[in-house]
Amino acid sequence: MRRGRQEPGRLHGTPPPRWARFAPAVAMFGLCLAQWLTPGDIELGYFLAGLPPVAAFSYGATGTAVFAALVMAVLALPALGVAHARGSDLATVAVVGVLSVIIAWVRRRRDEQLVSVRTVAEAAQLAVLPPVPKRVGPVHCAALYRAAQTGTLVGGDLFDVRAGPYGVRAVVADVQGHGLTAVATVAALLGAFREAVLDDPELAAVAARLDRRLTADAQADAAPHEELFATAVLLEFPPGLDLVRVVSCGHPPLLLLRGPTVSEVGAEPGPPLGLGLAGPVHPPVAEIRLRPGDRLLAYTDGVTEARDAAGHFYPLAVRIPVLANDPGGLVPAVWRDLATFSGGGPHDDVALLLLSPEADGPARPGPVPRGGPARR
Fold it and tell me: Which of 137, 183, 305, 331 stands the most exposed, by the fewest C-beta atoms within 10 Å?
C-alpha cells in the first residue's frame, strides 16, 4: 500500500508462500524415498505421522483432511514398503490427522478475522492520512511516509497538500511521540489545517489555528502526561505569484533545490505548535522568490536524526545532489539511501514531501506582497 508514502505492512492477508504449500508433499515423498533406500530393519515411515500438523499450517481443513488420509493410506498399504502400521498405530495416526484438521480450521478462521480487523484498521488510518495527489493545482507533489511502528500506516508524522481560495497550501509536521498513540493528534491537526486552508487568508493564521487546536486538546485531556506539542512547517503558493511563503514552527529547515545546488530556506523559526508560546503574535512569514525548476523538500527529523553504525547523522543536504537524477524519483531514492545508511531504516517516523511548483512566467518586478523583500 503506497500512500505516496507507506508500502510496508501489506496489511491485507496473503496466501502462504508456494514453498510452504508444497513442503508437506515434498517431505512425504522424501521420507518414502529414504525408506525405500534404507535397509529393511530401519523404519522411517512412521515419521509421516508428523506431517499432517505441518500441512495444517499450509492448507485449509479440507486439504489437511485429504493429506492426512493420504498419509494413512501410505502407512497402511504393505505393498508400498513404507511401513506396516496396524491397529493402534493407524488409530494414533488417525487421531493426529483429526487434530490437524481442527488446527487447520481454527487457523483459517483466525486468519480471516485478522484480515478483517487489519482491513478496517488500514481503512481508518488511510481516512486519517490519505495519499497526497501527484498534482495539486499548479504544484507537483511526491511524498513518502514510513511509520516507526511495524504494521501501521500512520504514526506521529503528517503531511498534506490542499488547494484553496488563497492558493495551494502544504503542511509537514512531527507530533510528540509516534505510533498509534499519536494518531489522534495527527487527525486533529489535519482537520484544523484543512479548515484553515479554506477560511484563513494569512498563512500565519493557519499556524495559529493549529497551535490553538493542540493547546485546547492538551487542556481538555484529563489524563496527566507530558506537554503535547508538534513541530511543523507550512507552505503557501499564492495564485499568480512566483513565490512561496513559509512558516516554520520549530521544524527542521525546508530545503530549496535549485539546479545542482541545495540550500536551506531562511525562514525564522517560531515556537513549536501546542506550547502556547506564540500568544497573540503570529509566527514570522518568509517569502522566497521561485525560479523555473525550483523544488522544495520538507521532511521530519526522523530523516536527519537517523544514524549509521558509527553514530553519524544522515547528511540529507549532502546526499540530495547525488540522488537528484535517480530515474525512480528523488523521494524514493532518498528513502533507499536512508535505509542503507541506517542499516534497514531509522527507528522513528519518516515523512518526505517534495513540491515542484510550475513556473508562471518570468519573475515579476516590484515589491513582494505581504511582508518585505524575498528571503533566501
Answer: 305
